[in-house]
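During the second half of the funding period, the structural biology subgroup turned its attention to how the target accommodates small molecules. The most pressing case was flavin mononucleotide, which had performed well in the primary screen but for which no bound structure existed. We therefore specified the complex as follows and requested a full 3D prediction, including the ligand pose.
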Amino acid sequence: MRSEELIEFLKTRRSIRKFKQQPVSRDILEKILDTARYAPSARNSQPWVFIVVEDPSIKESLSRIHQWAWPLANAPLGVAVACNKDLSPDSYLLDCSNATMYVMLAAHAYGLGTVWIQTMRDNDKIREILGLPSNYVVVSLLAMGYPDEHPAPKPRKPLSDIVFYNRFEAKK
Ligand SMILES: Cc1cc2nc3c(=O)[nH]c(=O)nc-3n(C[C@H](O)[C@H](O)[C@H](O)COP(=O)(O)O)c2cc1C
């Protein structure tokens, strides 16, 4: 694939919140999670586990953790990226954010949509719903499925506002 096509692939990912009821095959799901294993992590600690949530009642409970978690309710799948803090005490948030992004991009490669659902204020609740011990932090919950919407791209800050060479300079 040419570089421009790969860049276009990255730029065309969108957060998807409405999904077709079409199921996601186990084969594709496992290819996506297999790809996530290649995300970088500090000391190659790979502190993540992926909990695939298919059970409608568990998905429903997760969709109620806060008011912006509703996309989980209508997605055929939820994927929780949970991190074992003991394996990467300094970097678990970073490691599992990387793994989350790999899941999102691999899903995009298979024509699936995802949205990252915020977890950081609700970890006790989420751990209880998923049966995770206290040394795990759920860094993300992803709603996943075939898109039933085509959202316009969200605006991005111009490069000139966010790129500096050598040293940061406050913008006037
Ligand atoms: C850490 C994080 C938390 C987010 N939490 C939510 C959420 O709880 N609910 C939701 O609908 N979208 C959530 N999003 C999705 C963002 O709103 C979305 O990525 C952003 O608006 C940019 O849109 P795009 O992903 O289509 O480029 C979250 C994204 C990130 C990275």
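Two results from this model are relevant to the next phase. The chain has six helices and four strands. The radius of gyration is 17 Å.
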